[in-house]
Amino acid sequence: MSKKTDVLHVGIDLGTSRSSISASNGGRHVVESYVGWPVDMVARRLVKKPILFGREALDNRPMLDLRRPLERGLIKEGSERDELAVRELLRHLISLAGGRDGQPIRAVVGVPAEALRVSRQNLRSAVKGVADALMIVSEPFAVSYGMDALLHTMIVDIGAGTTDFCVMRGRYPTEEDQRTLTNAGDSVDEQLMTLVRAKHPDAQFSIYMVRDWKEKWSFVGEPPGPVVVTVQKAARATPIDITGEMRRACESLVAPITETMADLLARVEPEYQERVRHNIILAGGGSQVPGLAAAMERVLADYGGGAVRVVEDPVFAGSNGSLAIALDASEGDWESLAG
Amino acid sequence: MPPSDPLKHQLLRQAVRENVDTIRGLPPPPFRVGAQLRRGVIQAALLVALPTLGLLAYNPLSGSGPDRMTGVATRPVVLSLPVPKALEPMMASLGVRKLVLDPGHGGNDSGARAKGIWEKEITLGIARELRSLLKRAKYDVAMTRDSDGYVSLRRRAQLANQERGDLFVSIHVNSVPSKECHAVETYYLGPADDPRAEQLAGKENHESGYHLADFRRLLEGVYAHVRQAESRKLAQVVQHELVEILGDTNPAIRDKGVRSAPFLVLVATESPGILAEVSCLSNDEEAERLADTAYRRRIARALFNGIHAYAEARNRVATLGQAKGSQ
Lengths: 339, 327
Description:
heterodimer; A: alpha/beta; five-stranded mixed sheet; B: alpha/beta; two-stranded antiparallel ribbon; 11 helices
């Protein structure tokens, strides 16, 4: 039996867009969820690595077989390359955590709720072997555990591929307590791309550029200022104003999210609905869109009022929660989860 | 150190248990109960999680709506307003009385072949066995074919719709390049979520009898959400039974789970439906098993158990709904 202090415990948030790790040795790291292999010998010589991760992979994408393995919040079943990408990404994160040589590693991995629901066995086999013992939990559960928000709370985790909803009712969340929408970061990117393309048909830009624009200038409600980006038009760098398009694309999240919240709320025992309504926690990268929480509260006013708060640290809220689970699990638990 | 908060402690226990069960290959909790309890649990689950009705509206910005036919196979489903609303049970008080069984392939379209047997023979044998089990349990049963004749997918769907079946069950046997395949999987209608499902749907959609002009109209049915939700539930129960019953004598069997894919025969039928790939003919051991009538009977029994469990739960919901409606 290993002493708990000899073991490196890690909590991992395996996200569609970004993955983060929080370790018991204090390490905190985040990586964009891209994994790339050089497409041929030439590419391999150029990038000088057998495999690249995160931003480095993205920046070298023309030379790589680039994977974003949790696209749409699911591991693509049947795609061995994507399963391998998940494994490699986890190994990379764990290596960043910097455990000592031979130090046993126990990991709790938070994944999008949909991934856990749809491909539980597949997910388990994909991540097998990356740690000495491993537990997989849904991301909203990890967030709520880390925040001690396990009762009469709703977690809305707006990721890239999916928005996961989970009502915490003092029990381990079941399918009935959870919802998943694909209205999330990626759908905002696609809408923004479509809108900008419609307004500027001669402009050249890629989805990666659109993603960057959204990361920098997303907003809901009144614009904090004009959003001007640079695109290529006939090989000439040209600034264009996309303020209106950005607003429309970002605001497309509000209605489906609030209506799904209402749908889940309606399933809570009536005496607790008001408490849940006033205890909504917004997590994930999408929670950082300025004005989104306020817009949701405005909609909730029609339901009798509500309060939406944003997690303080959206990048590490999930991995910190997973780490809390890892540290709370007993020796016996970990022994049963080994292998 | 276990958490001092009893609630945290309890939730942690449940999370660990769920992971341990997954390691042991057990399905998720709703289906992981004793035989006597299983039916009740499925009924309860259906009562609680009745189909959420509402259409997945076409979103002109996302371009993922039904009039973008390429989007069905390759793009994510982008849900847009209106978000599905929960219904009262009585609004969905539809029981299950009649089934349409669809043995895959037939006639010139023989399907896969191994060890001297054709897929078309296997699927027909299983469908006939299933029919007799269902009839014994007092269901009405119709078949899209009851002999070795070619029936196009279009015709199969027409027959199913004419028969006004409450459920549609299409039976197929997988065949993949890997000789190691022991997969059992059950599909319901929806966009393919991986390239392999897409490829399989393409293969099974071959010689459909549809023209390109029909395709667009057909795909409008892909997102009929109620049918999809019910189909998924049926697929889950059937898949569980297939894995459990076949796994008793065939430990190599691999649970590939419940998947969605745009099989044309499911798109065009109007009732909830599934397509079960009950075995893998390209694997020599599986082929030998499939040549054995007793093993086919076992497959039919597994399909029956799944269908019957689903139907009983559904009929219970219907009865409750009617009772509530008459109050």
